[in-house]
Amino acid sequence: MYDAGKIISGIIIFFILVSFPIWISAASGTIGDVPELNLPADEEQCVEDAEWMRANHMDLLIDWRETVVREGVRVYTASDGKEYNMSLTDTCLDCHSPKAEFCDQCHDYVAAVPNCWSCHVDPGGS
Fold first, then answer.
1. Which residue in 1, 15, 71, 124 has a CA-CA distance of 20 to 30 Å to 93?
2. What is the DSSP annotation of 56-118?
3. pLDDT digit string (tens) for 75-91?
4. Does residue 40 form part of some domain?
């Protein structure tokens, strides 16, 4: 095995390149800085429970979009039986605004680029 030095060097270089984003984040101190969200004080519950919404809000919004546009249904019945208007700007952002302090913090943290604002007008103008 005459090329052992090249193989080991290649593996080390590969590891450095693959782990580079982690090292940069660690050096800048951004690992673990999960954004703190200011939840609405006057509301007791979102359209579903908070844990479910954290994990599934994007699927819910896509489902709402498809249901409203394709089927014309505009009312969502939550798991607790309460009904909500299927609207990003009128339902979600009534409680979770301004957008820059709620949506943008988490989306920036996870590097998500939602396409909501390609159709909807940003109510906060941010």
1. 71
2. HHHHHHHHHHHIIIII---EEE-TTS-EEE--IIIIIHHHS-SGGGTHHHHHHHTT----GGG
3. 999 999 999 999 988 88
4. no
